[in-house]
């Protein structure tokens, strides 16, 4: 379920406490109260609701508020387009205007209240949509579209006006598209194309034009949702809806800012469960892009590293360019699931094959060597001096005769090959014409994917325009890069879907026994001392060193004897963020005299710096292992997020980290470790033993549980360093920083 019916799902920082105390929260999800079983431990919905948008895209009746037939007026052109669209979808259209008797020969009504029937959709051609929301509500209109601009995209004053509009819509019971949207939903879609369709979602209408134009290349497009400022209906709503449509093979999105991270992930989860690929261009990789996106749509773009990680976590395929968006979405919509993940490259030029193979391999595609038997078979038709291992170089001449189809069929018959790619760098008729036709014919005979890169800059050749684009089975590209991007996404998507287990199915519904214990340690608006932070970790079963908090030199000596030499001594206080820089850490102490001296020195420094201490920690010294960091931060869009990476000073120097948004399972936790550039350190390098990866994964999952139960109360949590010991020996949190919200 996606959040509230008419706005962002807000996150109450006390909901976990509400559940723990036995009270039942009642969030509204698309107009109905959520069942308690549908909520996670923090009171958030676990499943995406699907808005019933059938009557938006296929209404039985439409009201055009502000309709006009006066030539030269903007509303006149819009009214004319809406009339044509209503006729195509079989809807009855009713013009509404207070001073007109008729519009384009149709009876015009002074208000929505005067309409002869209840309408499904009201299109608002008025400068202030807020003024008519109450009237639409009384008339029980299901959907409305607001084209008006001047809202959140213009700054604080516009954002306030949008908040008032959103609040009115929430009260009304209708669903609103916009404001600051356009006519893209009412475009003329070709109805003569077959096969699975691409559904399009854009926050900027112009950015969807390249995808819409794919219809002229034979790719079916079924819907276009221009979401605008998303005062109510948002990208997530349309992803959920499109995921349920049987005719839709892929969803293509241009996203400038996410309205609510949780809603987006729930929608992406719904698509992943159903195997529907979501391909997205998401603006905001750079600071400049983020600023521009905010000015356009008035939304939070979110920390891009978190957005990127969250999309990968739920299988959303992120691409950079609109050309990649159209090519990748088209391939994923139309191609059958792969029978194997091997890619074979076939060309009439050794240079072309080698070049493409280099790029494909660098991008992570697997180009398996064809078997010795398969190579011997190919050499029946290809000269012995040419390589047929993969890439396959035919030398040119076999393309022109009966050998061409046999070579293609033989490659496709190899069980290791799931994708055949043939780069044709330029037209050279009649050879290129026959090659294109042979590839199209072969694609009809196989269940495997056949791709062609037509490299001619002209693009008017019959082999391209008629033969290749005329085939629904061949995926045709214009550049090497787009082909590789799309094929990689195709293979990764099907691997992802085959292994996908929704984290929401296993998300905890009730607080753990640790929760109440942890609650007592939280200090709203304050930073915890290291001692208190480690108590919080202990509450969640995370191992910390043997240690004691002392308030005198004599007690420090006794504690050292109990802990066992050598020891580490650290000042502990809520004001201390970076102890090492202040000289508030002493390591490798091996005698009582060193411990007494260290205690005096630490307390003297603290007095000099004006730092209040709750005591000095005398800690077990743990040396042998790999230092990692595991932490929780609070993202503006997604809420609590969990990070793991190389720890100690390396976390600031290398910034080698991976991020996930809770909830997630063990597979995702292990996936985080695979993403680290320094992953080899965990396996042991230069004679060092491999470390206890299982224990590290367990810590990540326990920290995730903290994020789920306490995340709204934690501004920042850093376990750094987490010393991961040799295999079988566990992991120990040597230090921890917790800042409460």
Automatic annotation (TrEMBL):
Q: Where is the ATP-grasp domain?
A: 534-572
Q: Which domain of life is it from?
A: Bacteria
Q: Which Gene Ontology molecular function entries are recorded, alphabetically?
A: ligase activity
- Ligase keyword on record: yes
**Matching SUPFAM superfamilies, A to Z?**
Glutathione synthetase ATP-binding domain-like, NAD(P)-binding Rossmann-fold domains, Succinyl-CoA synthetase domains
Q: Is Disulfide bond given among the entry's keywords?
A: no
Keywords from UniProt, A to Z, are: ATP-binding, Ligase, Nucleotide-binding
Alphabetical list of Gene3D superfamilies matching this protein? ATP-grasp fold, A domain, ATP-grasp fold, B domain, NAD(P)-binding Rossmann-like Domain, Succinyl-CoA synthetase domains
InterPro entries (UniProt xref)? ATP-grasp, ATP_grasp_subdomain_1, CoA-bd, NAD(P)-bd_dom_sf, Succ_CoA_lig_flav_dom, Succinyl-CoA_synth-like
Protein name listed in UniProt:
Acetate--CoA ligase family protein
- What organism does the UniProt record list as the source? Streptomyces kaempferi
Q: What is the lineage of its organism?
A: Bacteria, Bacillati, Actinomycetota, Actinomycetes, Kitasatosporales
């Amino acid at each position: 379920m996606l959040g509230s019916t008419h706005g962002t799902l807000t996150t109450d920082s006390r909901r976990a406490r509400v559940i723990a105390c036995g009270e039942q929260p009642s969030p509204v999800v698309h107009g109905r109260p959520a069942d308690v079983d549908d909520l996670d431990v923090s009171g958030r919905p676990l499943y995406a609701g699907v808005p019933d948008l059938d009557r938006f895209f296929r209404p039985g009746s439409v009201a055009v508020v502000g309709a006009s037939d006066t030539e030269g007026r903007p509303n006149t052109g819009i009214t004319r387009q809406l009339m044509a669209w209503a006729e195509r979808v079989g809807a009855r259209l009713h013009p509404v205007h207070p001073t007109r008797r008729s519009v384009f020969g149709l009876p015009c009504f002074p208000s929505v209240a005067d309409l002869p029937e209840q309408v499904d959709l009201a299109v608002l051609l008025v400068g202030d949509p807020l003024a008519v929301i109450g009237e639409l509500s009384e008339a029980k209109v299901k959907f409305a579209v607001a084209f008006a601009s001047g809202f959140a995209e213009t700054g604080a004053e516009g954002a306030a006006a949008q908040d008032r509009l959103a609040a009115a819509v929430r009260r009304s019971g209708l669903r609103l598209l916009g404001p600051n949207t356009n006519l893209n939903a009412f475009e003329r879609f070709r109805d003569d194309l077959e096969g699975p369709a691409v559904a399009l979602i854009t926050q900027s209408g112009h950015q969807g034009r390249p995808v819409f134009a794919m219809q002229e290349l034979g790719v079916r497009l079924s819907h276009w949702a221009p979401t605008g400022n998303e005062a109510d209906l948002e990208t997530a709503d349309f992803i959920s809806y499109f995921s349920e449509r049987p005719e839709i093979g892929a969803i293509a999105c241009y996203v400038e800012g996410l309205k609510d991270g949780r809603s987006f992930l729930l929608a992406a989860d719904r698509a992943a469960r159903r195997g529907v690929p979501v391909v997205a261009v998401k603006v905001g990789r750079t600071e400049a892009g983020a600023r521009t996106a905010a000015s356009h749509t008035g939304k939070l773009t979110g920390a891009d590293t978190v957005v990127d990680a969250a999309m990968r976590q739920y299988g959303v395929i992120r691409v950079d360019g609109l050309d990649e968006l159209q090519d990748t979405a088209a391939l994923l919509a139309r191609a059958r699931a792969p029978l194997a993940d091997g890619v074979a490259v076939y060309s009439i030029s050794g240079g072309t094959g080698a070049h493409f193979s280099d790029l494909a391999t660098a991008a992570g595609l697997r180009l398996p060597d064809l078997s010795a038997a398969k190579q011997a078979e190919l050499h029946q038709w290809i000269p012995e001096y040419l390589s047929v291992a993969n890439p396959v170089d035919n030398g040119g001449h076999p393309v022109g005769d009966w050998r061409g189809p046999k070579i293609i069929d033989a490659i496709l018959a190899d069980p290791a090959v799931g994708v055949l790619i043939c780069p044709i760098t330029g037209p050279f008729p009649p050879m290129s014409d026959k090659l294109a036709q042979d590839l199209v014919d072969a694609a009809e005979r196989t269940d495997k994917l056949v791709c062609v890169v037509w490299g001619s800059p002209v693009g008017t050749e019959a082999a391209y325009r008629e033969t290749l684009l005329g085939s629904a089975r061949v995926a045709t590209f214009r550049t090497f890069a787009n082909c590789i991007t799309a094929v990689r996404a195709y293979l990764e998507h099907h691997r992802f879907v085959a292994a996908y287990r929704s984290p929401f199915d296993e998300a905890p519904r009730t607080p753990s026994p640790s929760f109440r214990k942890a609650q007592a340690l939280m200090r709203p608006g304050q930073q915890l001392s290291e001692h208190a932070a480690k108590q919080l970790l202990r509450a969640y079963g995370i191992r910390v060193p043997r240690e004691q908090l002392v308030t005198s030199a004599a007690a420090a000596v006794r504690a050292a004897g109990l802990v066992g030499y050598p020891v580490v001594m650290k000042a502990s206080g809520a004001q201390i963020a970076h102890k090492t820089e202040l000289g508030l850490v002493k390591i490798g102490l091996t005698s009582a005299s060193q411990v007494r001296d260290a205690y005096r020195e630490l307390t003297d420094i603290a007095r000099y710096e004006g730092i209040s201490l709750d005591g000095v920690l005398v800690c077990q010294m743990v040396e042998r292992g790999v230092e990692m960091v595991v932490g929780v931060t609070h993202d503006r869009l997604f809420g609590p997020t969990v990070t793991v990476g190389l720890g100690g000073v390396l976390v600031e120097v290398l910034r080698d980290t991976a991020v996930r948004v809770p909830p997630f399972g063990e597979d995702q936790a292990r996936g985080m470790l695979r993403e680290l550039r320094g992953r080899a350190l965990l396996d042991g390098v230069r004679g060092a033993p491999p470390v206890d990866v299982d224990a590290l994964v367990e810590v990540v999952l326990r920290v995730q549980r903290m994020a789920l139960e306490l995340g709204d109360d934690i501004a920042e949590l850093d376990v750094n360093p987490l010393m991961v010991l040799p295999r079988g020996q566990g992991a120990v949190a040597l230090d921890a920083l917790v800042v409460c919200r």
